Amino acid sequence: MTKPTISCAKNGPMIVKGLENFIDSDGQRLETRPAMGLCRCGASLNKPYCDGNHKYAGFTDEASPERTPDELRAYAGQAITILNNPLLCSVAEYCHRELETVFDTRKDPWIDPDGDALEHIKGLIEKCPSGALSYAINGEPQPTRNCAATITIEKNGPLRITGSIELKDADWGQGASQEHYTLCRCGASKNKPFCDGSHSAIHFDDSK
Q1: pTM for the complete prediction?
Q2: d(CA 59, CA 47)
Q3: What digits encode the pLDDT tens for the residues 49-106?
Q4: Sign of the torsion angle spanned by Cα atoms 46, 18, 55, 168
Q5: 14, 57, 69, 98 — which has fewest CB within 10 A?
Q6: Residue 87: CA atoms inside 13 Å, Cβ hemisphere, count?
Q7: Sign of the CA dihedral running 203, 90, 32, 13
Q8: Would you give the DSSP letter of residue 69?
Q9: Alpha-carbon Rg for the chain in angstroms
C-alpha cells in the first residue's frame, strides 16, 4: 500500500495522493480519488475540493512575518514536563476547556504540570490536534499516538491530519508532531500551510 502524501501547489491547492480515509465534519466517510486537490484559499464554491478560485481570490501561501515566534516552551513538573509551541496551535481549545487545573489562560505561567493526575494530562495532550502540545518524561520526549492515516474536516476549521501522512516541503516548527497536525483551509493563517486559528477570527464558513 502506498503511503499517503500531501503537497502544496504554489499559491494553490493541497494535492493529496494515496489517501483512503477522508472524513467530513459529521464523521461520514468521503469518497477519495488517487489524487485530489483540496481548497486552502477559503474561496472554493465546492469545499473541501479546489475549484480554481484561488486564481481570482488573490491567495498567497507565504507565511506572514507577523506569525507567532517559533519557540518550544517547557513547563517542568514532578512527573511530567509539558512542552508547548504556540506557533503550532490551531486554537481547538481542548486544553483549557477540559483541564483548566493544568491549562488556565488567566494565570502566568498558564500551564501547571502538577495541576492534575499524570494520566489525565497525558490524555488531554493526546487530544491536541495540531501537535502544539507534547510532553517528556524524565527528560525524554514521548510519542503521543499512532493513528491510521486519515484526513478529517473540522467544521468551519482546518483539516486535521493523523497517521504520519507525509507533508512535503514543510517548514516544521520546533517540537512539531509529524504524526498529527492541522492544515489551514480558510486562507487566513499567518503560518501556512498550518492552521493558526485564524478561521475563528475571520468567521470562516465552509458552507459558502
Answers
A1: 0.95
A2: 16
A3: 999 999 999 999 999 999 999 999 999 999 999 999 999 999 999 999 999 999 999 9
A4: positive
A5: 69
A6: 22
A7: positive
A8: P
A9: 17
